[in-house]
Automatic annotation (TrEMBL):
<dbReference type="GO" id="GO:0006164">
    <property type="term" value="P:purine nucleotide biosynthetic process"/>
</dbReference>
<dbReference type="GO" id="GO:0046655">
    <property type="term" value="P:folic acid metabolic process"/>
</dbReference>
<comment type="similarity">
    <text>In the N-terminal section; belongs to the tetrahydrofolate dehydrogenase/cyclohydrolase family.</text>
</comment>
<dbReference type="Pfam" id="PF02882">
    <property type="entry name" value="THF_DHG_CYH_C"/>
</dbReference>
<dbReference type="GO" id="GO:0004477">
    <property type="term" value="F:methenyltetrahydrofolate cyclohydrolase activity"/>
</dbReference>
<dbReference type="GO" id="GO:0004329">
    <property type="term" value="F:formate-tetrahydrofolate ligase activity"/>
</dbReference>
<dbReference type="GO" id="GO:0035999">
    <property type="term" value="P:tetrahydrofolate interconversion"/>
</dbReference>
<keyword id="KW-0521">NADP</keyword>
<dbReference type="InterPro" id="IPR020628">
    <property type="entry name" value="Formate_THF_ligase_CS"/>
</dbReference>
<dbReference type="GO" id="GO:0009257">
    <property type="term" value="P:10-formyltetrahydrofolate biosynthetic process"/>
</dbReference>
<dbReference type="InterPro" id="IPR000672">
    <property type="entry name" value="THF_DH/CycHdrlase"/>
</dbReference>
<dbReference type="GO" id="GO:0006555">
    <property type="term" value="P:methionine metabolic process"/>
</dbReference>
<keyword id="KW-0511">Multifunctional enzyme</keyword>
<comment type="subunit">
    <text>Homodimer.</text>
</comment>
<keyword id="KW-0436">Ligase</keyword>
<comment type="similarity">
    <text>In the C-terminal section; belongs to the formate--tetrahydrofolate ligase family.</text>
</comment>
<keyword id="KW-0547">Nucleotide-binding</keyword>
Amino acid sequence: MSAEVSARVLSGTELSKETKNDLRQQTALLAERFNGFKPRLVIIQVGDRNDSNVYIKQKIKSADEVGVDATHVQYPNTITQNVLLSEINKYNNDPSVHGIIVQMPLDCIQKIDSHLITNTVSPEKDVDGLNIINEGKVAIGDLTGLIPCTPNGVIQLIKRSGIEIAGTKAVVLGRSKIVGAPVASLLLWHNATVTICHSRTKDIEKEVAKADILVVAIGKAEFVHGSWIKPGAVVIDCGINSLPDSSKKSGYRLVGDVHYESASQIASAITPVPGGVGPMTVAMLLSNTIQAATKVVENIYRSQWNLSVLPLKFQKPVPNDINIARSQEPKDIMQLANEIGLKKSEVFLYGNKKAKISISVINRLKDINNGKYIVVTGITPTSFGEGKSTTTVGLVQALAAHTKKNTFACLRQPSQGPTFGIKGGAAGGGYSQVIPMEEFNLHLTGDIHAVTAANNLMAAQIDARMFHEATQKDQALYDRLVPTIKGVRQFSPIQINRLKKLGIDKTDPSSLTAEEISSFARLNIDPDTISWNRVMDTNDRFLRKITIGQSPTEKNHTRETCFDISVASEIMAILALAKDAKNLKERLSNIVVAQDRKGNDVTADDLGMTGAMAVLLKDAIDPTLMQTLEGTPVLVHAGPFANIAHGASSILADLLASKLVGPDGYVVTEAGFGSDIGMEKFFNIKCRYSGLVPNAIVLVCTIRALRMHGGGAISPSKSVTPEENEEALRKGVANLKKHVSNGVKYGVPIVVAINAMNTDTENEWAIVKDASLQAGAMDAIVSTHWENGGLGAIKLAEAVIKASQLPNKFKFLYDLNMPLQLKIETIAKEMYGAKSVEFNEKILNKLSNYESKGYGKLPVCMAKTAVSLSGNPNLKGVPTDFTLPIMDIYVSAGAGFIVAIAGEISKMPGLSTRPSIYDIDLNIETGEIVGLF
């Protein structure tokens, strides 16, 4: 470098240090604001070029200096284009990655299109700025995106010179897509008059001489001489070339595209080589990474959804449900997903009206505080139901569409058994429904079928295993269980689990003794203890008891068994209670299907079933996104039988929704049946496993049901006087008071929702309001959501918001350390009002046995009729002085609870004389389903 330099040296090294200091402050602020958040950059390299290795080390070092987590991913030079594209897309879809660069040039022996590679990097993560979308934005003057790094560094260095870009004449030598073309665009949009010169430009020296700002990126060593340069011009040299130099230890020296010694005598400012544009390129790369990460995290933490609401088209009188549902065109489900902050890679479309949502969202949003958690329950219902689902949907429409709160409804998937049997649908009703209601009520995304398949595969394996053990000797059985395949014999991972359970510390199949072989190969299931039944999602009373194994091929290995309805399967309860895929597999592995002849439990893991069932449930673990009539989001997931299991939608749906709504949002979920069954299990089972703390209870009641509990008629065809109705209501509110008192015991604020019907009177509403407040409810609101959608539930929404902001005093009903018998008695006495609980000797022995096996600290799932607080379905109102008989008890070890059956409870409903089947049909001309309400 000449000692007579007159130009000011524009040091990229110094400016990059200042820039990185600013970037370091930005990352520190991000970490402070967003719970330790850290931007992440992935650098992809193909091959092992030395110069690329040097550049990558510099980038990683600089990234560490500013607080960016940089990961270097290196692929062999044999990688193919398709594999490389697939790997890039993996990082495109990884929400933890905010910036991606592909180090160029690619060092590979395969033919790979480098332009295709750079264009495959997601524009939002393309921190090199080389994707055609980012380049195109620069070309049209949109400088809000990720600007190519070297061109952006050039602009920063020009600004550093002190020259005002606007109004100057700028000349750019070189038109490459990486430097020349985008630099010219940036200068243009900074209001310079720009000329681009290239290899075909005539009289290039004369063009250079016009430049107030000269940017050289032509790739020729010392191409521009000082004699070409306009006196006082700013010169930015983007070139880096090596020339032989014997005086250097390396044998070469680095020079730019400008002859520095001569140019520095004429220019007012000039960048050195090295130490000019190069350091700024790295600084701009990190700036882009932090910009991309900031956009992501601010989008995650944004407080308000940009939700487009669907207006309702009200009609009087209110049409039937399916006509209302069909009159509303749902939003494209991808639009809804975008509105609530989901990424494309997290949404798996099933058509354009429903989609599976990846549970990976929970991990992406793990630092987000949960929203308010509201549970909707009810009083003891009539045979018509009291509208919990309708109230849930109406409430969330009011919260999301009318009070502008981020709000999710989390609902169970309805079983096809009741749909075709007695109910006809379960998507809500009137102007408070989930749409498309036909898809909601039928196959949806196949989760119930997946549960059915997993359950029945287990049942098939149980009987097949018993058959093979009965028809083979130890060695033959062992040889088939652990076969030699292509000369190799080894245990599968799940068989290793069984060896460990048996205390056999061996992994070589040939090393087991005869005794160990017998112990490993024989489960010795006692057929009288098998508790695992086959299932199907149809009401079929004739499957309540069957005999299997009657084919001659089964060699007289027959036994009595039965079918349950699919939603009564323990696998459905497991799906609803799992917190992630790992927890799902753990729960599946723990399922107890029988005892062996020594009384030891036989589990799904013993049968080798865990992995196979998990595979069948691979897609079912993700909740399904749908929408209400007003276009607000709904998660539909799992549907455990509400009296034989815990009767609530999944923990995963609630966790996912809680993160998506954010700390100022609301998740409204439903508990099956009344407070005595659904709410009790929701709190004592579901909340225990989810860790979510409820903020408020919405207790749904109807005047119709309360009249019934007071001895009044519920049939619309029966004529009664207003005085008779009111007299029955005053007696019947005792049932409501009992349910309110049940909620009070958990320390959670209660809002009573009076689901209004056209047969109600204002005086009756007043009676119910007074009774609710006397019993301890925070408020009681008449809600007309069935008739008016979200508008009719605004007052209910306001009451729920107020209740959820009260101090939380939630407590469980019982301690898990209590004996199982005492837990059952506590539930029966506190929730149902029983005087005592009756246990026969067989039940007491089973309880003692379960406690000896380590199940004593599990919560209890009470199976009881839903139509009475007692175990007798004929007792209405508030029965007292009754004894609750426990008829049976068994362990659902995978689900994680003990089931106590009180009264006659069937796990396989039957079809009535006139089921809904008669009303359900397919219009073959339009393809529409008719008859679902």
